[in-house]
C-alpha cells in the first residue's frame, strides 16, 4: 500500500513538473511579445534562472519526499483531479466538510474542497481575513455568501450577529 502511494506521488510530481515547465514556456512567449525592444533579454535570463531553479528544487523535494505546505496543496489537488478513484474514495469517506475561517481560503483549497464534497459547512467573517500573503481570497467567501443569499436552494446562509466575546459579563471581568 505504501509503495502504491509513493508511486502515485512520483507520478503526480512528474506531471506537476511538466505542467510547471509548460506554464513557464507560455509566460516566456508572452514576455517576448511584450518586451522585444526593451528589457526582454534581462527578464528572459531571470525567467530562465527561476525556471531552472524551480525544476531543480521540485526534483530535490520529490526525491527526498520533503514538501512544503503549498506543494502538498498542489499535489492533493492533482491527486484528486487526476485520479477519479481517489476522489471517489474521499467523497465516500466524508459526509461533509466543516471549514472554519473560510474567509482565508485560497482558490486551490476551494478546488480541493469542491473535489472532495459538495456538502460543506463554512464559517467565516470577511472583516477577519488576514492571510492574503498566503493567497487567501476573501472574495471566495463573499461569493458563497451572495450565492446563498440569492439562491437559498444552493445552500443555507446563517448570520451570527450576536457577539459573545464582548458581552458585559466578559468586559466587566477585564
Concise synopsis of the structure shown:
This protein is mainly alpha-helical and 174 residues long. Helix content is 63%, strand content 3%.
Overview of this protein structure:
- With 174 residues, the chain is mostly helical.
- 63% of the residues lie in helices and 3% in strands.
- The chain has seven helices and two strands, in the order H-H-H-H-E-H-E-H-H.
- It has helices spanning 2-34, 40-64, 69-82, 84-93, 107-116, 138-150, 168-172, and strands at 97-99, 120-122.
- Helix 1 packs across helix 3 (69-82).
- The radius of gyration is 22 Å and the shape is extended.
- It starts with a helix and ends with a helix.
- 8% of the residues are buried.
- The model has no long low-confidence stretch (mean pLDDT 82).
Features:
174 residues; mainly alpha; 7 helices; extended
- The structural class is mainly alpha
Radius of gyration: 22 Å
Distance from N terminus to C terminus (CA atoms, Å) equals 55 Å
**What sequence of helices (H) and strands (E) makes up the elements?**
HHHHEHEHH
| Shape, principal axes of CA atoms | extended
Low-confidence stretches: none
Q: Please count the beta strands (DSSP E, at least 2 residues each).
A: 2
Task: Give average pLDDT, whole number.
Answer: 82
Sheet with the most strands? Answer: 2 strands, parallel
SS field, number of helical segments: 7
Strand order of the largest sheet: 1-2
Give the helix proportion (percent range). Answer: 55-70%
Amino acid at each position: 500500500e505504501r509503495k502504491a502511494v509513493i508511486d502515485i506521488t512520483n507520478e503526480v510530481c512528474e506531471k506537476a513538473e511538466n505542467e510547471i515547465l509548460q506554464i513557464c514556456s507560455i509566460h516566456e512567449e508572452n514576455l517576448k511579445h511584450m518586451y522585444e525592444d526593451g528589457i526582454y533579454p534581462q527578464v528572459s535570463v531571470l525567467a530562465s534562472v527561476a525556471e531552472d531553479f524551480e525544476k531543480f528544487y521540485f526534483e530535490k523535494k520529490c526525491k527526498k519526499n520533503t514538501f512544503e505546505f503549498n506543494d502538498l496543496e498542489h499535489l492533493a489537488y492533482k491527486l484528486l483531479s487526476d485520479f477519479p478513484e481517489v476522489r471517489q474514495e474521499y467523497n465516500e469517506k466524508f459526509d461533509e466538510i466543516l471549514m472554519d475561517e473560510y474567509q482565508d481560503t485560497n482558490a486551490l483549497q476551494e478546488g480541493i474542497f469542491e473535489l472532495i464534497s459538495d456538502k460543506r459547512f463554512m464559517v467565516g467573517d470577511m472583516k477577519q481575513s488576514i492571510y492574503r500573503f498566503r493567497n487567501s481570497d476573501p472574495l471566495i467567501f463573499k461569493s458563497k455568501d451572495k450565492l446563498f443569499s440569492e439562491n437559498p436552494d444552493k445552500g443555507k446562509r446563517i448570520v451570527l450577529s450576536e457577539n459573545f466575546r464582548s458581552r458585559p459579563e466578559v468586559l466587566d471581568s477585564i
